[in-house]
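User: Continuing from earlier, I have the next pair ready.

Assistant: Great, send them over.

User: Here they are, in order.

Assistant: Folding the first of the pair now:
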Amino acid sequence: MDLQLIKTFLEVSATGSFGAAAGRLFVTQSAVSLRILRLEDQLGRPLFERTKAGVVLTPAGREFRGFATMILRNWEQARREPQGPARA
């Protein structure tokens, strides 16, 4: 799974807007939309309901948000953990 997809999902979830998430991620709104579509395709379910006022999480999106947060937290922890002795 692509961590950029997860980061994008969490930004859209936090802002309630593809456009606002795009601004925070320094990418275009179409890039955010494509990333969310790719993630929804991988998971086999919609994560957001799109409305004129923005987006809201579906039940599947609310459930996935906890997993997404955990995945990123675990990834960051794994990057910080010692990797053993340095190679010469």
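And the other member of the pair:
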Amino acid sequence: YVTLSNRIPVYGHIQHGPLDLWLSACAAIFGLSPIERADATEDYSVAAWYVEPLTIINSHYEGMVAQHSKWHVEESGHQIHVHRYPTGRASIETAGLPVECETGAITLLDYSRPFTSLHTKSNCQGFFVPHAAIGYEPSDSHHAPVYSPETTLGRLLQQEMDHLMSL
């Protein structure tokens, strides 16, 4: 337990180990299937901070397929995942539409919808924000916006993500 400026409580958690532990830890958010199992004993690592109402995550993992099913939506579908891949990338299919998450781009993925994703070996940085915290109401729009670092909004989001990850 730490605080930011002695005013905002922050709870941190660091975990690393075999992939089976990662699969178990993520079970409420998505089902995972490794693409290729590494022989290493530490196949993933994650550092997470809980700053009400955000969950900030910096994770490293092997290539895998993830499925956020209707069951997962019921468990964790009240949030948006704002994230980027400093290394690696992901291809996502949500509502039949493809979304490419290139290295360095910022993606906003609404967890109120099922999706399937294919990840390379990656470092994923981002945060989960509850819909209610930002007044977001899921709409009929089935896309997940991706902001390239070459765009003005992409550069601004990158700067804010850099700042968030440096805290």
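Worth noting for the second one:
The chain has four helices and 13 strands. Confidence is low (pLDDT under 50) at residues 1-5.
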